[in-house]
Amino acid sequence: MFPRDFAWGAATSAYQIEGGWQTDGKGPSIWDTFCHEEGRVFGNQNGDVACNSYELWEKDLECIQQLGLTHYRLSLSWARLLPDGTTRNVNQRGVQYYNRVIDDLLACNVSPMVSLYHFDLAQAIQDVGGWKSPGVATLFDNYAKFCFQTFGDRVKLWITINEPQVCAKLGHEVGIHAPGLKEKGTTAYLVGHNMLRAHAMAWHSYNSTYRITQNGAVSLALNSDWLEPLDPGRSEDVTSAERDLIFTLGWFAWPVFVTGDYPELMRSSIETQSKMMGYSGELRLPRFSIDDPPILGTADFFALNYYTSRKVKSGGCSEQILSMKRDLAAEEVLDPSWPICGVSWLAVVPNGLRKLLKYIKDVFNNPTIYITENGFAQVGPLQIEDVERCKFYKSTILEVAKAIEEDEVNVRGYFAWSLMDNFEWADGFSARFGLFHVDFSDPELRRTIYQSGREYAKIISKYKSV
Ligand code: GBH
Predict the structure, then answer these.
(1) For the chain, domain boundaries
(2) 372 and 304 in contact (C-beta within 8 Å)?
(3) What's the rounded Cα separation, in Å, for the pair 161 and 294?
(4) What mean pLDDT is reported for the chain?
(5) Cis bond before residue 418 (omega within 30° of 0)
(6) How confident is residue 466, by pLDDT bands cut at 50, 70 and 90?
(7) pLDDT tier at 229, thresholds 50, 70, 90
(8) How large is the C-alpha radius of gyration of the chain?
(9) What is the phi-psi region of residue 150: left when phi exceeds 0, alpha when psi lies from -120 to 50, beta otherwise?
(10) DSSP for 21-51, written as a single string
(11) 12 lines ligand 1 (CB under 6 A)
């Protein structure tokens, strides 16, 4: 059912697992700052220690081996490697840490997939404007080149930026992620634009300098729910669902995979609102400049993070200010038949993944796809026998198999989110996504496999080609 070299993985990210926020010369990131502010995160929790993977990496490696993964997706902490965000100061102890992780993985026959950026901007870069400032793209490119140079002899799968949509929207428009800005209707588009510019610069650096010797692949990880009309018989609902997909996934995927520019529908929707609201400032959705490297074609594969689905109907915005919500003019609702797992946003809809994969195949020119994140949260009383999550993984992986077999989608890998329970951003430690439970009250932070971890290991051993 699965191609011979299919990647069976699990994923984590630096801030969510490492801890050691000040250890061995690491600089602060925007998540350190954000969590240390009162009232930002559930229970005022933070990732100062998290799973302490900075010190307990061997324990993580044991988990990885116990699952029998072929791939492990991790992210590098920019501020651990470059404490002030620039290559003027390299923190060798950070380099040593990631060298060890990468070498240990390879020694165990596990291929690393490495993200350069998973929400944790070096605070020093935030201090000079962060993702709002156009200069961030060059700083990111320098950081990326440093990482390709340092680790690219061994790392063959790279993600530049994880979920630019989430960082732009939740970090700069809604404000529930670092840096916590609530600048509605403008900043998120600017931030997304600079993230795309940064990504494209890094891809071009890889392509022109490192590809010839390192021969790896570089992409960016895009998140999207599957979005379908609430009433397929109502044309407003149909166009609203299409528009929502374009605003969420098309925002980043169109420039990279289709035209080199934002979707026309996105631009026109935004422009219409600007006119209606009498806005006279700079273009809210920026234009790509000819001084920047071209954006079209800057991904060697499609990396998709899928968690859930929504039904969509047309809907305005009652607030009389410009906002992304107003630009989108659509409302997302849950289907009452979908079970909710733990966190309120995560309706369990495995079949939505298959539909989204087919959509990506059709709209983005049949790319090679890695599902770089997919998972199920547990909240409340701990259940090591997590029967519902077992079912979730089984049915989701079945949907992936159908996408490959029946829809002929070119899926090359699947990464479960997450290897172990970790710091779940604004939800702190209250939502547990792991295949391993982590006991955060135990000073040793003991990892214990969930039943779903055993189930996933079984699936892997059944399909993995040896
Ligand atoms: C991923 O984002 C992240 O890459 C990963 O770090 C994270 O741990 C994982 O999801 C699990 O959450 O709070 O109602 O405003 C997935 C995309 C976008 C899904 C934000 C949850 C929050 C909705 N996420 N969304 S809400």
Answers:
(1) 7-371+398-413
(2) yes
(3) 17
(4) 98
(5) yes
(6) low
(7) very high
(8) 21
(9) alpha
(10) TTGGGPPPBHHHHHHTSTTSSGGG--SSSTT
(11) no
**Cα-based distances in Å from 288 to 34, 193, 292:** 31, 8, 7
264 is catalytic: no
Instruction: State in Å: Cα 11 to ligand 1 middle.
Output: 14
Does the domain at 7-371+398-413 match CATH 3.20.20.80? Answer given as: yes
The answer on pLDDT for 315 being more than 70 is yes
Q: How far is the CA of 149 from the centre of ligand 1 (A)?
A: 31
Residue 309 has pLDDT above 90, yes or no: yes
**Helix/strand/coil for 371:** strand
Cα 102 from chain centroid (whole Å): 20
Q: Quick one: tokens of 273? A: 């609102």
Q: Which amino acid is at 123?
A: Q
Closest C-alpha among 117, 374, 330 to residue 225 = 374
Q: What is the dihedral of CA 137, 138, 143, 146, to 10 degrees?
A: 140
Q: What is the pLDDT of residue 150?
A: 99
What's the rounded mean pLDDT across residues 180-190?
98
Q: What DSSP string describes 205-269?
A: HIIIIIHHHH--EEEEEEE--EEEESSTT-HHHHHHHHHHHIIIIIHHHIIIIISSS--HHHHHH
Number of C-beta neighbours around residue 437 at 10 A: 20
**How many other C-beta atoms can be found within 10 angstroms of the C-beta atom of residue 3?**
13
How many Cβ atoms sit within 10 Å of the Cβ of residue 275? 10
Q: Give the span between the Cα atoms of 144 and 209, in whole angstroms.
A: 12
Predicted pLDDT of residue 254:
98
Average pLDDT over residues 289-305: 98
Structure-token pair, residue 6: 């299919």
Q: C-alpha distances in angstroms, 443 versus 18, 58, 422, 439?
A: 15, 16, 15, 8
Distance separating alpha carbons of residues 248 and 250, to the nearest angstrom: 6
Q: Name the closest-CA residue to atom 24, ligand 1.
A: 166
3-state secondary structure of 258: helix
Q: How far is the CA of 433 from the centre of ligand 1 (A)?
A: 11
Residue 257 in 3-state DSSP?
Answer: helix
| DSSP label of 287 | P
Binning the chain into helix, strand and coil, the percentages to the nearest 5 are 45, 15, 40
Structure token digits, residue 97: 């840490």
- Find the catalytic residue in 373, 399, 424, 455: 373
Ligand 1 in reach of 416 Cβ (< 6 A): no
Residue with tokens 């700052």: 33
Q: At what angle do helices 451-463 and 53-67 cross, to 10 degrees?
A: 50
Question: Which residues, 6 or more positions from 269, have their beta carbon under 8 angstroms from its beta carbon?
Answer: 243, 247, 327, 328, 329
